[in-house]
Amino acid sequence: MEPLSRLTPATADVLATLLDATEPTWGLRIVHATDRPAGSVYPILERLERTGWVTSVWEDDPTRPGPRRRLYRLTAEAVPAARAAVERAQRSASSGTAGARIAGASS
Question: How far apart are CA 30 and CA 33, in angstroms?
């Protein structure tokens, strides 16, 4: 897992949504939960997957109508780092600083 070089508010929202999920979650559900545009959420998910924070699989439910969904989940290694990153982003937001630079979840 690579550290995140920068944590935007949108990335923190995506991480928080994934932390709250009890099962793999599809992208559109993350879009709705974060109230962020799909054009922001999907690139964030792609970056998180590329850096090893997230894994994804195609849904395999032939009984569900409609197109297949891609399901996203935080990796076990990323969970503590994501918690720390979200907490740091929340502290930055409450203190008025946005777009805080973060190296993973460390200072």
Answer: 5
- pLDDT tens, per residue, the chain with 107 residues: 999 988 999 999 999 999 999 999 999 999 999 999 999 999 999 999 999 999 999 998 889 999 989 999 999 999 999 999 999 999 988 887 554 444 344 33
DSSP state of 2: P
pTM of the predicted structure, to 2 decimals: 0.86
Q: How far is CA 82 from the centre of its chain?
A: 8
Among 79, 89, 105, CA closest to 11: 89
Note whether 88 and 7 are within 8 A (CB): yes
Euclidean distance between CA atoms 57 and 36, whole angstroms: 22
Structural domains in the chain plus CATH codes: 9-95 (1.10.10.10)
